[in-house]
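thought: user wants a sequence for this fold. calling inverse folding tool.
action: design(structure=
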């Protein structure tokens, strides 16, 4: 991935002369009157406030490509690598569930790494996600019960000992939706049941929103099966990080925009979100000991 542009040899004019590229970009043709090229669209892009947006996890093609990222053992981008997840499962089983068989609700379960792992440790688990490819993968490869559904509308069931929403996904919901999901999780827990959230620190959200603009090219990536150029631009305002991805198909010049948002919460705001719960506690990370630069864990109990 290239970051920024530098001008080597600014003090040595001999190598400074511009070199015209012998290529034609379909998006770069002079625009016939009244017709927008990809560059006009980029110049006219909207950078003000917009309604809350998420990447299209639930789109069948996007979810198929995202599943590749979940399963990759080369990075931790969509789900953590297996070895890290094993440590998390051990901590949840031993410390949160005290090694006793429990009913577990895994909200935004992805391909079921946690639902499946906790099921193998003797718990009765339900994983819910609206990514069709992830749920199909989980149903085929993982132990436990899985349901395809939107956390905002699907019925969670009830009588759970533990409800969890991990890997920072709570911050990716509009604040009113996050509050609504917490309320649904509360209703799904039995009295004495535990809510486990893995959330972003406010500093991590600010860092996300203040990244310098960047770009990269791929022949086949998360946003398309065809080669594309992705221009990435972030902003941070009022505790909200917004990242726009401008994806340009290199064959046709067609531009597609994707946006993700993250909401920062202070400690007081997290506590207010969980006001109906008792025993609010924070833990350094999902394995209980190693520091994570972006995320931490909150547990709270339904009275
Ligand atoms: C960062 S991934 C984490 C997946 C999984 N918890 C893990 O750690 O392996 C977030 C997950 O939340 C799911 N998700 C996001 N918004 C959702 C919604 N409104 N309803 C259901 N699932 C959602 C996505 O499809 C994705 O699988």
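)
observation: tool returned 303 residues.
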């Amino acid at each position: 991935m290239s970051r920024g542009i530098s001008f080597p040899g600014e003090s040595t004019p001999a190598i400074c002369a511009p070199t015209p590229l012998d290529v034609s970009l379909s998006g770069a043709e002079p625009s016939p009157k009244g017709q927008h090229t990809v560059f006009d669209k980029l110049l006219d892009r909207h950078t003000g406030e917009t309604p809350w947006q998420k990447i299209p996890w639930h789109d069948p093609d996007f979810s198929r490509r995202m599943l590749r990222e979940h399963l990759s053992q080369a990075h931790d981008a969509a789900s953590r690598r297996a070895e890290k997840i094993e440590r998390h499962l051990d901590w949840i089983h031993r410390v949160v569930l005290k090694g006793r068989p429990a009913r577990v609700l895994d909200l935004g379960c992805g391909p079921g790494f946690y639902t499946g792992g906790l099921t193998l440790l003797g718990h009765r688990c339900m994983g819910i996600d609206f990514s069709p490819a992830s749920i199909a993968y989980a149903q085929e490869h993982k132990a436990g019960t899985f349901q395809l559904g939107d956390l905002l509308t699907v019925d969670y069931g009830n009588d759970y000992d533990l409800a969890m929403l991990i890997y920072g996904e709570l911050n990716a919901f509009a604040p009113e939706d996050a509050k609504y999901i917490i309320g649904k999780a509360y209703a799904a827990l039995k009295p004495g049941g535990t809510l486990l959230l893995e959330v972003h620190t406010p500093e991590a959200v600010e860092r996300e929103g203040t990244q310098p603009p960047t770009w990269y090219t791929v022949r086949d990536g998360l946003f398309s099966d065809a080669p594309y150029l992705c221009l990435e631009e972030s902003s941070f305002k009022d505790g909200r990080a917004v990242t726009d991805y401008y994806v340009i198909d290199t064959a046709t010049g067609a531009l597609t925009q994707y946006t993700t948002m993250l909401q920062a919460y202070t400690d007081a705001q997290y506590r207010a979100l969980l006001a109906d719960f008792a025993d609010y506690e924070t833990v350094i990370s999902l394995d209980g000991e190693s520091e994570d630069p972006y995320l931490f864990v909150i547990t709270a109990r339904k009275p």
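thought: summarizing for user.
answer: Here is the designed sequence. The pocket of S-adenosylmethionine is lined by residues 57, 78-79, 108-110, 113, 129-131, 134, 150-152, 166-167, 169 (CB under 6 Å).
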